[in-house]
Design the sequence.
């Protein structure tokens, strides 16, 4: 089968003929119909690094074409969405429903003694985030797949797997935003826009979005932002305090560069929470003054995948979309071929592009 292989840091994405193993145990073979270009894959390919060569791609939707002998949760023909949340299903955190902090995520992988899932010219190829969606087919543990209704369009379905789970989940699960509360979304990209959608579902009273591109801010308004601030031209901290009067209840940082995250901290009102989602560089983070945080009873929380439970949340967001209560259509700015990933990531630099999705794997 064809897969887009990343051979090393900064080496981009090249289509190669690779081999996919037959499904064993709880593995499911998926014919990929759509695969979104999330910024995190570009970060892995450009500065975070990891195992190479690798097939990246972790926003995947497709059809089940084969199942291992122990698979019980999906069947051939099912339309499924993948998620990078690896969970064993049996540890105390999984049993408590908090699968995003599973204590044995490696239980979803092959053991070192087994042959690799993907090989290229006989040599092993790593599978990005245990999904490897930049390919015609993927071999995925059933715990990483959720079934969605057949009427879900492929590109929109794929985006649920990361951008939607992360953005909307940060608001609905991690922060548990309540009706009437104020929300700030820093960075209206493919993930941040879903935080805006999540804030609408939660009934937030004020939804302020900051970005440095007017086109992104206009789109954020269409998703439900009540106020937008261009932080290139307006001090976003002052703007948030002017709009809310008291400081924000919840600030979500989808950018992750130190000066921006520090601004997020200063936007908080009493009892407010800052949620760290974006990683813009390896030194992303924030200094917290104990005196300021304790006197305002403020908190800072790292958010992994929107604290999502994929088996519950992926079908939920699909239902919200099919009922017309969640905008996924305007996230899909462009559909590309498997060999167009480098150009697709270039296109994301243009403010008019929200998400680019591979839908042609020929
Ligand atoms: N924590 C997690 O589990 C998780 C999951 C998925 C993605 N992520 C991360 O979330 C981040 C966002 O991903 P994305 O795909 O939406 O990226 P993106 O590039 O589409 O969006 C980033 C947005 O931030 C804006 N921006 C840049 N600098 C800014 C500034 N100084 N102030 C305000 N806005 C600014 C950009 O214009 C853009 O609209 C990435 O860092 C990604 O790696 C984290
Ligand atoms: Zn992602
Ligand atoms: Zn577990």
Sequence:
């Amino acid at each position: 089968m064809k897969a887009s292989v990343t051979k090393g840091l900064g080496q981009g994405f090249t289509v190669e003929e690779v081999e996919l193993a037959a499904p064993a145990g709880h593995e499911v073979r998926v014919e990929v119909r759509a695969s979104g270009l999330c910024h995190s894959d570009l970060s892995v390919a450009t500065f975070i690094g990891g195992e190479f060569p690798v097939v990246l791609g972790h926003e995947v939707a497709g059809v089940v074409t084969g199942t291992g002998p122990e698979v019980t949760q999906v069947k051939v023909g099912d339309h499924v969405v993948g998620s990078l949340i690896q969970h064993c299903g049996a540890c105390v955190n999984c049993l408590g429903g908090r699968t995003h902090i599973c204590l044995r995520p490696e239980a979803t992988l092959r053991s070192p003694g087994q042959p690799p899932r993907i090989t290229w010219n006989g040599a092993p190829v790593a599978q990005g985030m245990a999904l490897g969606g930049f390919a015609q087919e993927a071999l995925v543990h059933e715990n990483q797949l959720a079934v969605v209704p057949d009427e879900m369009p492929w590109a929109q379905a794929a985006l649920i797997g990361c951008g939607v789970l992360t953005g909307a989940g940060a608001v609905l699960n991690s922060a548990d935003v309540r009706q009437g509360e104020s929300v700030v979304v820093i960075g209206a990209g493919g993930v941040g826009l879903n935080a805006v959608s999540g804030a609408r579902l939660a009934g937030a009273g004020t939804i302020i979005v900051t970005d440095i591109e007017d086109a992104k801010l206009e789109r954020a308004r269409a998703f439900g932002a009540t106020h937008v601030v261009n932080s290139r031209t307006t001090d976003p901290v002052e703007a948030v305090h002017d709009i809310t009067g008291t400081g924000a209840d919840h600030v979500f940082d989808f950018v992750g560069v130190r000066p921006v995250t520090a601004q997020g901290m200063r936007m908080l009102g009493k009892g407010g929470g800052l949620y760290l989602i974006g990683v813009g560089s390896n030194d992303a983070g924030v200094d917290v003054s104990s005196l300021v945080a304790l006197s305002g009873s403020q908190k800072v929380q790292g958010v992994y995948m929107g604290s999502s439970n994929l088996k519950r949340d992926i079908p939920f967001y699909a239902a919200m979309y099919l009922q017309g209560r969640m905008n996924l259509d305007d996230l899909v700015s462009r559909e590309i071929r498997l060999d167009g990933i480098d150009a697709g990531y270039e296109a994301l630099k243009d403010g008019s592009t929200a998400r680019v999705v591979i839908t042609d794997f020929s």
Remarks:
- The first helix runs from residue 39 to 48.
- The radius of gyration is 20 Å.
